[in-house]
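Dear colleagues,

I hope this message finds you well. In preparation for our joint manuscript, I am sending the Bromo domain-containing protein (Salmo trutta) sequence together with its predicted structure, so that both groups work from identical material. I would be grateful if you could confirm receipt.
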Amino acid sequence: MSIGLITGSKRRRATSPSSSVSGRDFEDGQPSSSASSVGRKRRRTTNIPNVDPIAVCHELYNTIRDNKDDQGRMLCELFIRAPKRWNQPDYCHIVTHPIDMMKIQLKMEEYDDVDQITSDFQLLFNNAKAYYKVIYNVITNTFTYWTL
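The corresponding structure tokens are as follows:
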């Protein structure tokens, strides 16, 4: 049995006889089972704004393209175009799925979500690591031999 107390223009529910001495509906900091089943259901709201995935893809592409180092050199220079077969014939033997920034830009309207462009950038970076690691090892070995 609960008795409503009127204070001002707001109604409060009086504490039930089963609540603790302090008048709260909590015991040891935990809500009682009767208090948790009586409350209204809250509508779950998210604070995440609705974002256009195409706009995010464009922003990601522009961020990678426009990134510069401390000397002002664009870091994407190596990634703008994949090496040509006639220029670097070993590239096609090391990299099985070539991709470059120009291909990603041409595919920009085909991306439906950020995961697709992210996987293309991941492929681009993995290709560069695979190819230039081989080149780096050759250069390092050359300098090692030169110092002998």
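For the figure legend, we might mention the following. Strands lie at 4-7, 10-13, 26-27, 30-31. Residues 114-147 form the longest helix (34 residues).

With kind regards,
E.M.
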